[in-house]
Amino acid sequence: MNLYHGSTHKIEKPKLIESLRNLDFGNGFYATTSFDQASRWAVLKKNRTKNANNAIVSIYNCSELLFQNDNYNIKIFEKANELWLDFVLQNRNGNPIHHFDIIKGPVANDNLFSTITLYESGLLSKTETILRLKPHKLFDQISFHSTKALLGLEYIGFELIQ
Q1: pTM of this prediction?
Q2: CA-CA to 70 of 20 to 30 Å: which in 18, 100, 131, 135?
């Protein structure tokens, strides 16, 4: 399967770097199976980054068998449920609690995060929050958290986003 990573430059050799923001699944190298989602991320990064001239999607091949490999500690969230919500909030609040090599699950994008903020402030219950998330199309994200896991990505090219 193909995975896509949106950035301001092509990334032939993915690396683990510390993010300045608290991300859904903690620090790691993020990709998605959706080219459209990666394109949006690339444009967003370009707009947020001073002196960035390009929005680029790097493309990787990744075997689906990677997610069934017992040599990796893998967490898969099949849908946005209470466990996913708790996990995302813990990471976004700067309290990552995992030692996974790979995490796969829905993206809590900025449009949906207003719903999560209402939950955090106590205005929505956990059940109401999950119900509000269900009608939205949630793209996936796959985060790699170890150099060993990054070996499962084979760079095959990039596309410049206009």
Answers
A1: 0.86
A2: 18
